[in-house]
Amino acid sequence: MRSLLTRRDLLAAGTGLAAAAALPALSGCASLAAADSDPDTIVVHTQLGTTAPGSPTYLSALDRFRKENPGLKVKNLINGDDLGQVYETSRLARKEADVVMVNLYDKTLAWTDVDATVDVMPYLDDWGLRDRVLPAALSAWTDGKGRLRAFPYFATNWPVAFNRALLDKAGVDEIPTTGDDLIAAARKLRAKGIAPVTVGGNDWTGQKLLAQIIQTFLSQDEARHVYSTGDFGSRGAREGIEYFTTLRDAGVFADKAQGLTSDSMNTQYNTQAAAIQSAMSSALAKVPEDVARHTEVGGWPLADGGAHEHPTIIRAFTLIGFWISPNGVRKIEHVEKFLRFMYRPDTVSRFIKESGRDMALRTDTVSTGFPLVAAAQRLGSDVSEVLLPDVYVPPAATQPLITATSTSFTKGTSAAKVRAALESAYRSA
User: Fold this and answer.
1) Are 375 and 298 in contact (CB under 8 A)?
2) Domain boundary among 332, 347, 366
3) Given 43, 156, 213, 349, which is the most exposed site by the fewest CB atoms within 10 A?
4) Beta strand ranges found along 41-168 (DSSP E)
5) CA 184 to chain centre
6) Alpha-carbon torsion 388, 389, 391, 392, what sign?
7) What does the pLDDT look like over 15-71, one tens digit per residue?
8) Which domain holds residue 190?
9) 36 and 116: one domain?
10) Into how many domains does the chain fold?
């Protein structure tokens, strides 16, 4: 019999919840009333429904699902970045949602282990949906014990966007493909009053770009070891950190990058205040048409002696999945209808066409209305792929790593101090 989630389980998993204090504070919220007693109501806890990319398509899909299943209701609970903590708090009260739509990152890495959600592999097979999932996505969502944490859904391509018009204005004739090219381009851009590379050095976007640059000198197996253990002392990791600090101190990144966020990064690029950004597909989908016309996508420039043949990008399949909770198991027939509907080719195609989302599922649909997303999908042999570290970083190290990232983007911080900051983030893990 599956054991019940305990307060100790959540705290041991690194959630940091002060559950006794949190429950009274949230007692008036819908999140703690999530477990609807109506057996014909599915409760879905999601980050879609407001301004998140794909929200209009998702809400429209729910309307169609309700019309096709008139006796079945869907109740939507919406949270942003705090979804993980809110869900865990509701689970402690045994009032969690039936289905959770969230990425594999930070707190969610521990959910299957502490019985906050269930292994969905048996359902994937019983419902005949395995062939709908891309093999790479299935692998990414499967843990070391062979359990499928959630039904894969959204994926992402994470290339580098280059504003060709701004580069031309600064006299940069070619898209930079090496570190030396990038430094030279940054100098020319700055001379014209244009920020070179904008990045959210104070949040997750900076963390991801820093990890990508460090991997310049790491194979994927070496990168898995580094981000699983926090050991940045290998030759490749040290060379990657030194490459990062060389670029940073040469003025490659926007001024005061250590204080920027993903929002300020996107604003700088979309208003043409900056010429380059590392942009996941959801950000590419929001680039205004007049900027997108002058944007080319490619990889992060290489350094001499790097471990990769081509400039690098990140491709990941863990952006959003459908997790099933213990409460959801009690309504599993209804959950099956919902998942089958969301996996239907016509539903999947609408997310691609209407929202520019990359999917972790098999599909022939292309984001024709989102040219930069489509261009990123076409990137092939001209780029090399590096790891998204999210599934390897221990949950307790996630937020400390973001703090270390801000330190790393602070100009003048030595490579040794960057390494120390990154390694110290793991000490609490």
Assistant:
1) no
2) 366
3) 349
4) 41-46, 73-78, 99-102, 151-158, 160-163
5) 31
6) positive
7) 333 333 333 333 334 444 455 668 899 999 999 988 888 999 999 999 999 999 999
8) 158-315+372-424
9) yes
10) 2
Confidence of residue 429 (pLDDT cuts 50, 70, 90): low
pLDDT, tens digit, 9 for 90 and up, residues 281-313: 989 999 999 999 999 999 999 999 999 999 999
- With CA atoms as reference, report the closest residue to 167 among 182, 151, 147, 146: 182
Cα torsion 19, 261, 110, 122 to 10°: value is: 120
CB 297 within 8 A of CB 372: yes
φ/ψ bin of 201: left (φ > 0), alpha (ψ from -120 to 50), beta (otherwise): alpha
> Which residue, chain included where needed, has tokens 């999945």?
321
Residue with tokens 């843990």: 143
This prediction has a pTM of: 0.86
Is the per-residue pLDDT at 394 higher than 60? yes
Order of strands, sheet of 295-298, starting from the edge strand that comes earlier in the sequence: 195-198, 274-278, 160-163, 295-298
On whether the CB atoms of residues 88 and 26 are closer than 8 A, the answer is: no
pLDDT digits (tens, 9 = 90+) for 174-215: 999 999 999 999 999 999 999 999 999 999 999 999 999 999
